[in-house]
Design brief:
Blueprint (H helix, E strand, L loop, with lengths): L1 H7 L3 H30 L4 H14 L3 H35 L3 E5 L5 E5 L8 E4 L9 E5 L2 E4 L1 H4 L5 E3 L4 E2 L4 E2 L4 E5 L7 H14 L3 H24 L2 H5 L4 H14 L3 H4 L3 H13 L2 E3 L2 H8 L3 E5 H5 E12 L5 H12 L5 H12 L10 E4 L3 E6 L2 E6 L1 H4 L1 H17 L3 E7 L2 E12 L1 H12 L3 E5 L4 H11 L3 E3 L4 H15 L2 E5 L5 H6 L2 E5 L4 H6 L2 E3 L5 H36 L5 H19 L7
Parallel strand pairs: 11-18, 11-20, 18-19, 20-21, 21-22
Antiparallel strand pairs: 1-2, 1-3, 3-9, 4-7, 4-9, 5-6, 5-8, 10-22, 12-17, 13-14, 14-15, 15-16, 16-17
Amino acid sequence: MLILIAWSATNETFSISLYILAFIIGGFAKAKEGIEATIQDRELNVEMLMILAALGSSIIGYWTEGAILIFIFAVSGALETYTMNKSNKEISSLMELQPEEAWKLNSDGTTNRISISELKLGDQLVVKPGERVPADGIVVSGATSIDEAAISGESFPVSKQAKDELFAGTVNISGAITMEMTKTNEDSLFQKIIQLVQSAQEEKSPAQQFIEKFEGTYVKVVLIAVGFMLFLPHFLLDWNWNTTFYRAMVLLVVASPCALVASIMPATLAAISNGAKSGILFKGGVHLENVSEMKAIALDKTGTLTQGKPVVTDFFVREGLDFHATLTTLAMIENQSTHPLAQAITAYAKTNGIGQLPSLPIQDKPGFGLQATINGERITVGKPDFVNKEDALTFHHGIAEKLAAEGKTVIFMRDEKGIAAAAALKDTVREEAKEAIKLLHSLGIKTVMLTGDNETTAKVIAKEAGIDQYFAECLPETKVEHMKALLKEYKFVGMVGDGINDAPALATATTGFAMGEGTDVALETADIVLMKNDLSKIAYAVSMSRKMQRIVKQNIVFSISVIAVLIISNFLQVVDLPLGVIGHEGSTILVILNGLRMLKRN
């Protein structure tokens, strides 16, 4: 408005006064920022070039152009601030989700509302419908549905009952529950997310670091070039002093690297923000760049490709025996054990309508199986060697060999008449894992499975999941060896894991992906965290990273091209100061807007 009034004013003194006011209002913040940065870093920057260009324009009487330069430069600065604020919005919105108070359950059954800061590990808390979960913990009693969108990006509510895990900041939708606090506020997943996003925004990518180092050198080169421009054209090209000084000021404007400097950071921050909204937490811009170059990815099996819990896939009984009665007998024995295979068989029995299982004394033979006496009859449950290997391998026409070839573990039950039943168990591949592998293949990424399982099981799981290559019987150090070999072949290799044993390989990989429900060690070691245990997010991260790299390249090529065209046009006296201002600052605004495209989900 001041520029328009000054431009239309007939009184020169009044007009200049308004222009000076416009200079101060529009340029004070940027000038202060530039001067402080120059003093602090002892390095010239883009802001200083703009100050000099505006002052130079006013000296030769081009007040309008100088004011427009300041105005557009301020607009581009506002756009950069907008980008930063959009990125920071993910943190601020998360912080707003953190409850400040909780209902603490007292020993006498009463509740009182206390500050989150007063809570201690082991405290029991009541969470009512519509309230946010105040801390990380587990459900003690009650059942409900929890909206975990703020943590995982998953839009559908998750059912919760006794012993299920709860996360601070999530919303209790339906029923009142009692929970036990298992992590301090500082160690909660909620706080880790905030810390991860903050560190990601502060950590600059290699490309951004290079541009910032390059900026200082470039600014010096521009100032030296302008210094020569102030004199040489007058003597070499026979320009008059007014034209020489004018063209030097135009060069100062058009050669400034504003657009180049803004080519990377807005796009990177927007991508990190996009990832946070989608449940993908990047620990820094460098990991965004590395993911775009990824040519192969190694995946742990248990808990990553598979459910991590065995399930009964087949159950066979001896001819003449009742299916449900035999299964009940087996479940009664297995119900006394905490072994994962025993728990899987007990769960299978319950899904087949077998209800309350009575307690009975058993003998546990670690590494082999269980023994029990029921109605005076001794029952043995376990491996073939424990129940008589020859009988086990011939049971049901030698079904054990066929099941083992399918990567299944077979448990036998023997009574006094021989093998009574056989249960086949397997850690099943996640359906979403199969789709994720297909997506990675479509992006041209080779998939490799690293597992501690035996060769047969590994081969079956790899085939079922659609994995290109697998390595069986891997110890933590073996996984690192395979990872180093992959790095040598492909250079950029990812690793996905969730356990402590995966941490060394995660640290060795170019990019480590940790499953959100994994161990703290895996979460700390990884470069990217998938808040929802959804492997398809890896493909999304790769696609988003590649899109960001394309946008950055577009910005760099565009900004350098504009600078080159404007410099050449200035020497040819084709472009004047107003057009130079619009071309230079307009290109800066365009590259920022192009970077903001990363805020949109793919």
